[in-house]
């Protein structure tokens, strides 16, 4: 047993949903639009600015992505808003150790 206190992740991280990017799509934009396979387009506006761990829905939940800076995630992704007490790289590593495939249904 340790004297280190524990706290639930729900108190440290907010899970947010991505959104459709078509209204901000801009080939000359500098903001990456990120899907489950990584960046695939550019946008003129950002959905979030900061360090985050991204999770795909359905079949890609077991392949999180770590990002830092301005980005837009599509509506098939979740992104995290981290409290100052959380190191984004740690959360990313932790997420890669979870056997999400055991919980994934891969159904629409």
* CATH architecture level-2 label: Alpha-Beta Complex
Please write the string of helix (H) and strand (E) elements: EEEEEEH
Just give the CATH class. Alpha Beta
Rg, rounded, reads 15 Å
Counting DSSP E segments of at least 2 residues, the number of strands comes to 6
Distance between the termini: 43 Å
Tell me the strand order in the biggest sheet: 1-6-4-5-2-3
| Shape annotation | globular
**Arithmetic mean pLDDT:** 90
Portion in helices: under 10%
Number of helices: 1
Topology:
Elements: E1 13-17, E2 31-35, E3 38-43, E4 48-56, E5 65-73, E6 77-82, H1 88-96
Parallel strand pairs: 2-5
Antiparallel strand pairs: 1-6, 2-3, 4-5, 4-6
């Amino acid at each position: 047993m340790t004297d280190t206190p524990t706290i639930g992740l729900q108190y440290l991280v907010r899970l947010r949903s991505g959104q459709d990017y078509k209204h901000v799509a801009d080939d000359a934009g500098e903001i990456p639009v990120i899907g489950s396979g990584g960046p695939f387009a550019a946008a003129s506006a950002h959905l979030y600015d900061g360090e985050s761990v991204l999770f795909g829905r359905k079949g890609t939940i077991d392949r999180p992505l770590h990002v830092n800076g301005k980005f837009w995630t599509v509506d098939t992704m979740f992104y995290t808003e981290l409290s100052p007490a959380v190191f984004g790289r740690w959360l990313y590593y932790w997420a890669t150790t979870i056997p999400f495939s055991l919980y994934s249904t891969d159904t629409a």
